[in-house]
Give the backbone structure.
Amino acid sequence: MPGTSSHSAMTSRSSERFGKWLVSAPPLVYLLFFFAIPSLIMVLASFRTPGEFGGLSPLVEDGRLDLNLDSYVRFFTESVYAQIFVKSVWYALLTTLFCLLLAYPLAALIARSPKKYRDLLLLLVILPFWSNFLIRIYAWMIILGPNAAMARAVNGVLSWFGHEPVALLFSSFAVLVCLVYVHLPFMVLPLYANLEKHDQALLDAAQDLGANGWQRFRRITFPLSLPGVYAGAALVFIPALGIFAIPDILGGPEDSLIGNIIKQQFLETRDWPFGSVLSIVLTVAALVLAGLAAWVGRSQLGTRSSGALSRA
Amino acid sequence: MKRLTLLLASLLLASLLSPAGAKDQLHLYNWNNYIAPETVKRFEDFCKCEVVQTYYSDNEELLAKLAAGARGYDILVPTSNVIQALIKGGQLKPIDKAQLPNLKNIDPAYLNTPFDPDNKYSVPYAMSLTVIGYNDQKIKELGLPTDTWAVVFEPKYLEKIKGRVTVLDSSSELFAAALKYLGYSANDVDEAHWKQAADLIKKAKRYWAAFNASSYIKELTVGNIWLVHGYSNDIFQANLDAQAAKRPFHILNGLPKEGAVLAVDNMVIHKDAPRPDLAHKFMNFMLEGKNSAELTNLIGSGNPNMEALQYIKPDIRKNPAIFPDKAMASKLEQLKDLTTAQRRVRNRMWTEIKAGR
């Protein structure tokens, strides 16, 4: 009967829609509750006045709504906070760059190794996650300590050149090394996911047409891997921008980053509104930079990869 | 599916029948390692209850957590200046002194302070000084003084120990030390004096290895760091660890002649404490000399309890950074709480110190 079949098609379509909704609702609700709502609370807090005892002073005081721009004004007039902000962006950029330089060859190596070893190699990349983040940072305190082998070796070499010994621990160097170390897997994984899918036939064709190794990399592999590069860069850059534990533990007197300053507002200074402002600026900066990268990426990807394909 | 339902039903039943809540519980929110395990054990036997401990590593952590609405704690052990903030914030329950006969054991010098007049809310627990800690071998070799903040702030001394010094990562403690060195009160709120202190800190900063509040005990113990601005009980701990590891040096306390910060920690009851009755029992128990002395013997904290003195190990009793003499005691100051506006100014200066080269 035609009627029944169309009816059943309709119910199956609506049940399919229901099924989709059922699957996508929990993550949506989760994100709404644990990302959107706290963010809104933070935005509201940024316009309020800090309470003497921590937290926020009452929203309605003497029948007046207590909302003001003080904390924003403060951020834009006291340049020291912007200065630390710029420094944090710089550290995060350096971290992303070093991660890319280290992760690219590694990801390519894994992608090209025989299939039966790939899973094992990937497992090794994520192995460090099995131990706690803080324990790994403390381990670096031992590795970089002044009496450890590494510092002795470095200072041994430096003394050959007549240079004064340097401290590795409690320095910008220690902070950067650990930032790169902690974030490296986040760069390796998306790069690997991308590189693994590359079609060997493209490279073979390029070789047949006389392209040398460098040309093949520059004109085919690298442009095709850009989505992986952008994904990895975002995964490294954004968490690196807000980190506070690493500079706290390994940094020297000059190594406070914006994450530390935000933490200070909520703890030592008891200034939640200003902490919220700093946090919002950080979020906006991360979004703008990510948007910018995505935009550059898309426009470049459009021209380059189609060019590479048409040339190939 | 049926099996799953059965499993869930039996879990639910089990949770209803389980003896959770059958035993009385006291929730103690305390500093890390701030009560001797044997004391806890004895109190549990005495009150026939269970002590559930949670820890914080600084006062600000406790304040932030309470401000964010954390509940369920009976006893907290904050420092005096934070008690002021907690009282103002209406976070504490007044104590009933009729239930605390042992309060008479406390040295009257530590009672009825401006932080909590007439001790309506708080009872002194233990205390520490913020002093100079040093590696005796290295500092003697280099001939540096250890009885003045100059060794922390003056480049002529710091040159010899560049990169071997840490200071506390706390603006209030570091400004207090700098203000004391400059001859002002640790509680001075004159911005011009703060500026002088900030300049002093900026000049000294390049000689310091780090602002450090978490790992300096370990760094002292292994001999990486030779001089610190730190808490007397941490320095005591560093020395115990160094002796246990058979290091060839001692970690000693240096008392600055300019004076130092005294931090008195006090027991208070949270306003929403589930068991104020157990909280009072615990307070009175901890005011007993023997119980109070156990903490001092464990971590080298100062003790305001006169009845405790007889139980304290003689070498700790003689340590001037733990039990300062009259002359030193007169130069000690407890930090007062700053206002919101003052905290903002202080934070800007502190951030400038940390950002600048």
